[in-house]
Amino acid sequence: MKILFTGGGSGGHFYPIIAVIQALNEVIDKEKIVDSKIYYFSDSPYNERALFENGVIYRHIPAGKMRRYFSVRNFFDVFKTIFGIIRAIINVYSVYPDVVFGKGGYASFPTLLAARILRIPVFIHESDSVPGRTNVWASKFARRIAISYEEASNYFPKEKTAYTGQPVRKEILVPIAEGASSYLNLDPSVPTLMIICGSQGAELINNVVLDILPKLVEKYQVIHQTGNNNIGNVEKLSNVILENSPNKERYRPFGYLNDLSMRMSAGISSLVISRAGSTMFEIAAWELPSIVIPIADSNGDHQRRNAFNYARSGACTVIEESNLSPSVLLASIEKLVENKELLKTMSAAAGKFYQPKAAETIARGLVEMALQHEAR
Predict the structure, then answer these.
(1) pTM for the full model?
(2) What 8-state DSSP symbol labels residue 51?
(3) Is residue 354 left, alpha or beta, with left meaning phi > 0 and alpha meaning psi from -120 to 50?
(4) Rounded CA gap, 34 and 22, in Å?
(5) For the domain that residue 184 is a member of, what is the CATH number?
């Protein structure tokens, strides 16, 4: 049995794939399926260690990004995509998998097209309320479609679409409270805020947080994941801003939080502030209340739709970028952290929103499709 995964371009595509692969390996072991191989085709391995640890064979498939705005790079990326399609057809044919799993994104297009040409069954998953162009196109020939938001079903054929939720990796699934304060050098008696700006960072959120930093550290401890590109600037500014503050040690900026640091931060946090991407499903898995700030100009306005879909569950409050200001963010934080009953209600709603069997459901669907194809 051979199963091929494709997607990429961001952690929002890559890490749900890893979560499915982890569940897939468990199913393979439990069902004692022999001679199984798992492949990942993309324009970048994204995290080679994660692929290696899960027994995944990687092959590089170039892919060009078609931007919605004018860019000279669009012209050159057309040739990159054409070369990627040729390379994908050759590589997919040489592997000839029993099923191809597509996570969306421009990097999955060449491999999904190769699967269609070679008549290999396709299974896709959509993480957002509004699907991207690749998944909308692939849904026309995909045999199964899994979605993270029920609203996304409006864009796909109903008869082959299932609401599974979002797969979340085992490594970050369970928060760690014991020893977390010592590990992060924080005071367990002071409420802690966790601000997640993604691997690329969110400069707007970083700047607003810096504006209210002296007031924040008066009442709270702040774990601030700034993005690797922004950590240097944020550290310099925060050192100046908090130079004379007696609570300077309550602020902990990080460019990137590894799995252990992320779980420990989640274990001691009272509230999370985040964008409206895949991180929201991790927050839901942790059963933490949150303030969500969607990107204003995301493709198809999907981040805004994601945020308000999540807010309807009662698990978060939303601040749109057009309304985001230092005073609004500070007031929202204080309103939530000081209302213990509301935090408890939001926490329970987050737990209900999270679908714990998402990865296993998708993995079993892939095995079923693969075995059916293998038997032919």
Answers:
(1) 0.93
(2) H
(3) beta
(4) 17
(5) 3.40.50.2000
